[in-house]
Amino acid sequence: MKLSFGYITTPTKAEAKEIVLELLEQELIACANIVDGAESYFVWGDEINQAKEALIFFKTRAKNEDKIIKVVKSMHSYECPCIVFSNLEHGNADFLRWVDDSC
Question: How many domains in the chain?
């Protein structure tokens, strides 16, 4: 079982919710958390920018990563959305089995 922890930023909570619901509907993720109101700072176009964003944290199978990127890019309003993954190797074994079974 190869699992991933994913992270996506969106400009609004509403957009985050739409993305999460689509990923759940397609059984690409097991679960997600949306955190609204994050202060983001980044360089874009040679300028330092600030934005309020909603963060999506989710758990999935590693084999779903490319499909998730494709779905999110098709729905996302950003030109270059943040969609990143990290290996999920340790944790509550019962929870990790549930993630694996859920997507």
Answer: 1
Helix (H, G, I), strand (E, B) or coil at 59: strand
Q: In angstroms, rounded to a whole number, what is the distance separating the alpha carbons of residues 80 and 57?
A: 18
- Predicted model pTM: 0.95
Which among 30, 47, 49, 25 is positioned nearest to 39, based on CA atoms? 49
Fill in the amino acid letter for 40. Answer: S
Tell me the residue range of the domain where 26 lies: 3-102
Residue 4 CB neighbours (<10 A): 21
Q: What is the rounded CA–CA span in Å between residue 48 and residue 60?
A: 32
For the segment 70-97, what is each residue's pLDDT rounded down to a tens digit?
Answer: 999 999 999 999 999 999 999 999 999 9
In whole angstroms, give the CA distance from residue 95 to residue 8.
21
User: Are 90 and 13 within 8 A, CB to CB?
Assistant: no
CATH number at residue 97: 3.30.70.120
